[in-house]
Amino acid sequence: MLKLGVNIDHVATVRQARLGIEPSPMKAADECEKAGCFGITAHLREDRRHIIDSDIVALAKQVENLNMEMAVTDEMVDIALANKPNSVCLVPEKREELTTEGGLDVIGIKDKLSTAISRFQENGILVSLFIDPEEDQIRMAAELGAEYIELHTGTFANADGEEQLTELDRLIEGAKLAHNLGIKVNAGHGIDYVNIELIKKIPHLVELNIGHSIVSRSIFVGMRQAVKEMIDLMADYTG
What we know:
It is a single chain. Helices cover 47% and strands 17% of the residues. The protein is of the alpha/beta class. The chain has a single domain, classed as TIM Barrel. It has an 8-stranded parallel β-barrel, surrounded by 8 helices.
C-alpha cells in the first residue's frame, strides 16, 4: 500500500504568524496519525520560519515515524543526530524562497552528502535525497548509498496540459531507474487532491509526502478528514 507522510510545516506557519502556541504542530501530528497516515514530515529551516527547534524535540518523542526535512549543514546534521528522527530528507534551501524550489544537486555536493549520509546511517537514521528526475542525479544518489530518493514533483504540479504530461513521463522514467538501481522511491511537493490521479501513474512509489494541500483542506473539514480523504484517493495505487 502506498504510504502517506503528512508535512505539518504550515500548521506551524499559522502559529508563527502570532509567535504564539496555537495551532500546535504536535496536535496536528496526533490528528494525522489518528487518521491513519504513516508518518509526519517537518522541515526545520535555517531561518526557523515555521517549524522551530522545540517542535523537532517534541515530535521526535511523540510521533511513530518522524521524517525531518533539512538542509545539509553542520547545524542541521547535529540537530538531527541529537533527536534521532526515523528518517531525514536532505533538501536544498535558500532563505529567499517561499518553498523548496527544486531538487538537490547531489553531484555538486557529493562529498558533503557522503559524510552526512554516513553519520546518519551509523546512527540508524534512514536517508532520502530530494531530487529532480534526472538520470545523473539518481545514479549519484545510488552511488552515495542513500536508501531513498524523493522525486521532486513540484515542476509537474505547476505545469498543465502537455507540459504536465511531459513532466509526468520524466517522473515515471526516474522512478523506474531508481528502482532498477535498488533505491526506494518517494515523491513530494505540490501534490493535491486532483493531481494525485496522475501521480499514481508513477511506478514503484513507497510514500508520498504531502503538506500544503492537506493543511489547506483541513481548514474546512478538519485535519483527520483531510488526511482520510487523501488516503482514500491513494488506496487504489498498484505500483
